[in-house]
Design brief:
Blueprint (H helix, E strand, L loop, with lengths): L1 H15 L10 H8 L3 H4 L8 H13 L3 H16 L6 H10 L17
Length: 114
């Protein structure tokens, strides 16, 4: 059952992050992409799942322009602040563990305007 739920979330995240050129990035897209990462980011796993890493790659794909990067950064920051038990070290290491070079830090305290 749990595997089926993860599969459904992954599929929804994929469809949610498909953006047509010229459309702004939304927090719904970013949140859907990163939902599979919550267990890793809250210390419930030693490494991020394949679905999580796919979401990280999807967020990177969304953040093409400076405005998109800022939007993604603000969405990630807002999402991170929703989880009091978020492990900062896990959040900061997530892109590296997924093999993705991100221009967007995953942090509660980042200044997204810089």
């Amino acid at each position: 059952m749990k595997g089926g739920v993860v599969a459904v979330i992954t599929i929804l995240a994929f469809f949610a992050v498909v953006v047509k050129p010229g459309q702004a990035v939304t927090c719904g897209q970013v949140d859907a992409a990163l939902v599979p990462c919550i267990s890793y980011l809250t210390g419930q796993g030693d490494s991020p799942s394949a679905a999580c890493c796919s979401g990280v790659k999807a967020v990177k794909g969304l953040a093409q322009t400076t405005a998109d990067k800022r939007a993604c950064c603000n969405c990630v920051k807002a999402a991170a602040n929703k989880y009091a038990n978020l492990k900062d070290a896990a959040a900061q290491s997530l892109p590296t563990k997924c093999g993705v070079q991100m221009d967007i830090p995953i942090s509660r305290s980042v200044d997204c305007d810089k």
